[in-house]
Design goal:
About 25% of the residues lie in helices and about 25% in strands. It contains eleven helices and 25 strands. It has helices spanning about 70-75, 125-135, 150-160, 165-175, 200-220, 240-250, 270-275, 275-295, 315-330, 350-365, 400-405; strands at about 5-10, 20-30, 40, 80-85, 110, 115, 135-140, 185, 225, 255-260, 305-310, 370-375, 385, 390-395, 410-420, 420-425, 425-430, 430-440, 445-450, 460-465, 475-480, 500, 500-505, 510-515, 520-525. Strands 1, 2, 15, 18, 19, 20, 21, 22, 23, 24 and 25 form an eleven-stranded mixed beta sheet that branches. The two termini are about 30 Å apart.
């Protein structure tokens, strides 16, 4: 695995504008821009599905009850793959509840989110929704409260050709002979976490995952299977869990999952803006462990990573409140509500800059990260928000994801950045971070930039001399005089991308001024 993009610290942190020089190293390729990196996560959590994606009473709803205004925003976001149905939810989920006639589907308690699951939306509905939008489906199987047989039967239902029991039930339910054709499968979710229904030790999970994977491969040897990696880099078992799991599953799986959430803590904005350093360290550490297991087993294949949950999430306080409410509910008065509003964070400009920086880091590790899912897609810690029965709008975090998904193509190129660094809880953080891509087919490229300085602009000089001949250079950025500004239903465009001036310096160099706490995309066109 390659080293992260090199950055050269240029002396002490400046007191005026931050000078930075970014050299795009043409021909020094990290790896391909993998389209699965622009994935998202749909879980039966809060109002992500019910009241978010699915709202039959909404004026824009289609015949299946899915909001078309939300579907339009999902298209604009550029989502390529959706991970479903969880998440913590999947570890208590009986997939059979969500198929067949809707009027016969049972209502169940969801232990993960203390809610009632109506099962109005299940596998067939979500698969049809994804197919209509041209989105690949990544499915997770329940290895918390279920096991090998249920996973194999779900695989038969989803991908089986007519002529066997579960495949025929799908045909009867959907009226289509064609299988859903799901190629990539997650073998459970966060099984290292004590909060997970059916939590297991690394040994127990590794054994069960290997058995499940082997059985699924008997049905289809060409599946891509994801073993559950660590849920958080701060867990005591981080690394040791992953090694043990891979020692059991290396022969049967293709990818290892990683989850990463970040939040602004104690007003420490510089550390928050440097969150991508932690994500980069997580990817490097897990990649090294995977390579060590490969070497120890005399293997020939590389285990890649699926960062299938990542985002900014203010979950420490929210989860504590949930725990306090559960502990205080001695008489069961809290009930089991249907689709309660949970974790509906209102994202700020600073959050959006971090999200853009995290996505840049996933691209920066294109040689190891094969897939990723922004968690989640609608309402719950999501780039899209809705009012049930009312409007939908883009959060601030929507924009860096959408622009990157639209314009980053071809190959990820290494960059070398000369800039000062500032001390943070994640270590020295370069004040400017840069990632670039180049598409040789249409001879276009992008340079993604972040100014992590909280109170100073950055004067960025881009050295593009090594790239093939090019024409125009244009830039847009996301920033605001108030980094805590958000988009609301009353003011949905409060935070939006704006043009940035580009100055031609000659000899293949251009200059761009980045405001403080800013994410930017520079387009290179023929």
């Amino acid at each position: 695995m390659s080293a992260p993009t090199p950055t050269v610290a240029a002396g002490p942190v400046p007191t005026g504008p931050v000078p930075a020089v970014v050299h795009v190293l043409a021909g020094d390729v990290v790896g391909p821009v993998r389209r699965r990196v622009f994935g998202a996560f749909v879980e039966h959590l809060g109002r992500c599905v019910y009241g978010g994606l699915h709202d039959p009473s909404h004026p824009s709803a289609d015949a299946a009850g899915f909001r078309q205004d939300v579907a339009d925003l999902v298209r604009e976001l550029g989502v390529t793959v959706v991970r479903y149905p969880g998440g913590n939810f999947v570890s208590g989920y009986r997939w059979e509840d969500g198929v067949g006639p809707r009027e016969l589907r049972p209502r169940r308690r969801d232990l993960a989110w203390h809610s009632t699951e109506t099962n109005e939306v299940g596998t067939d509905e979500l698969a049809a929704w994804a197919r209509d939008l041209g989105i690949e489906l990544m499915m997770a199987v329940n290895l918390g409260t279920r096991g090998v047989l249920e996973a194999v039967e779900l695989l038969e239902y989803v991908n089986g050709r007519p002529g066997t029991t579960w495949a025929d039930r799908r045909v009867a339910a959907t009226g289509r002979d064609d299988p859903h054709g799901v190629r990539i499968w997650c073998l459970g979710n966060e099984m290292d976490g004590t909060w997970q229904v059916g939590h297991l030790s690394a040994e127990a999970y590794g054994t069960l995952a290997a058995r499940t994977a082997a059985a699924m491969r008997m049905a289809d040897p060409h599946l891509e299977l994801v073993a559950v990696g660590s849920s958080d880099s701060g867990m005591a078992t981080f690394g040791t869990w992953d090694r043990t799991v891979l020692e059991h599953t290396y022969d049967q799986v293709d990818l290892l999952s990683a989850h990463a959430y970040y939040e602004l803590r104690d007003g420490d904005l510089p550390t928050f803006l440097a969150s991508a350093l932690d994500l980069s360290a997580v990817v490097s550490r897990l990649g090294a462990i995977a390579d060590e297991v490969k070497a120890a087993r005399g293997g020939t294949k590389d285990i890649l990573l699926s960062v299938d949950e990542w985002n900014v999430w203010y979950h420490d306080g929210q989860l504590a409140q949930e725990a306090e409410a559960a502990a205080a509910d001695r008489d069961g008065d809290r009930g089991w509500p249907v689709a309660p509003p949970l974790f509906e964070d209102a994202y700020t400009v600073a959050d959006a800059v971090v999200v853009g920086d995290l996505l840049m880091t996933l691209l920066e590790h294109a040689d190891r990260v094969a897939a990723a899912s922004l968690a989640q897609l609608v309402n719950a810690i999501a780039p899209i928000r809705t009012v049930t029965g009312g409007p939908a709008w883009r959060q601030a975090t929507f924009h860096p994801f959408a622009l990157t998904a639209r314009h980053a193509r071809g190959q990820v190129l290494r960059t070398r950045t000369e800039v000062a660094a500032q001390e943070t809880a994640h270590g020295p953080a370069p004040l400017v971070h840069a990632v670039s891509t180049w598409d040789e087919t249409d001879r276009t490229g992008v340079v993604l930039l972040v100014n992590r300085a909280t109170d100073r602009p950055a004067l960025v000089e881009l050295d593009l001399a090594g790239l093939p001949s090019r024409g125009s250079v244009e830039a847009v950025g996301l920033w605001d005089d108030d980094p805590s500004a958000t988009c609301t239903v009353q003011d949905p465009d409060r935070v939006r991308p704006r043009p940035l001036a580009v100055r031609d310096l000659g000899a293949g160099r251009v200059a761009i001024d980045l405001p403080p706490v800013c994410w930017a995309l520079v387009q290179l066109r023929p």
